[in-house]
Amino acid sequence: MSYWAWDSSLEIGIPVIDSQHRRIVDYINELNTAISTHSETEVGRILSELVEYTVTHFAFEEQLMEQGGYTYIKTHKKVHENFTHRIENYQERYRAGEDVSRKLLNDLKIWLTNHIQRDDTDYAPFVRKNASSTWISKTLKRFFH
Ligand SMILES: [Fe+2]
C-alpha cells in the first residue's frame, strides 16, 4: 500500500502538469518507504531530489500560467514562494539532525492536495485555451533535461 495513492481528484486536465504532480506523489511515497525502512541516506537523497523537482515544477508551471495569460499569476507565484521556503526550512532542520521527515510527509500531502485542487485547477482553463503543445514541449526541454 502506498502512503499516498494517486486518484483522479488530483487531475487538472493538463497532461504535462498531471504527470509532474504524479512524479511528486511518487517521490513522497518513496520518501515514506525510506523513512519506514530507516534508510537514512535514502531519506536525505530523496528529500533533496523532491525539493529540487518541486522547485523546477513550480518554475515550469509559472511559465505555463504566463503563457496562458492567467489573471492571478502573481498570487499563485507568491504561494509557490511561501511553500518553497517551507520545504527548504524542513530540509535545513533535517540536515541539522532534527527528525522532521514524518511531519514533512504529512504537510506535503495536505498542502499539495489543497494546492492542486484549488490553485492549480483555477489556472487550468487559461492554459488549456492559450498554451500550444509546441510551446509546452519547447519549454519542457528547457526545464527538465
Ligand atoms: Fe501551483
What report would you give on this structure?
- The protein is mainly α and 145 residues long.
- It has one domain (29-143): Four Helix Bundle (Hemerythrin (Met), subunit A).
- Helices cover 79% and strands 0% of the residues.
- The chain has helices spanning 15-36, 40-67, 73-95, 101-130, 133-143.
- The longest helix is centred in the last third of the chain and has 30 residues, at 101-130.
- The chain is elongated and about 45 Å long.
- The model has no long low-confidence stretch (mean pLDDT 94).
- It binds fe (ii) ion.
- Fe (ii) ion binds next to helix 3 and helix 4.
**Bound ions, cofactors and other small molecules, one mention each:** fe (ii) ion
Task: Briefly note the CATH topology name.
Answer: Four Helix Bundle (Hemerythrin (Met), subunit A)
The number of E-state strands comes to 0
CATH class equals: Mainly Alpha
Total helical elements: 5
Helix amount: over 70%
Integer tally of domains: 1
The proportion of strand residues reads under 5%
Q: Which word captures the global form?
A: elongated
Compressed to H and E, one letter per element, the order equals: HHHHH
Q: For the CA atoms, what is the radius of gyration?
A: 16 Å
Q: How is this fold's topology laid out?
A:
Elements: H1 15-36, H2 40-67, H3 73-95, H4 101-130, H5 133-143
Bound molecules: fe (ii) ion (FE2).
Main attributes?
single chain, 145 residues, mainly alpha, Four Helix Bundle (Hemerythrin (Met), subunit A), 79% helix, elongated, binds fe (ii) ion
Quick take:
Helices cover 79% and strands 0% of the residues. It is mainly α.
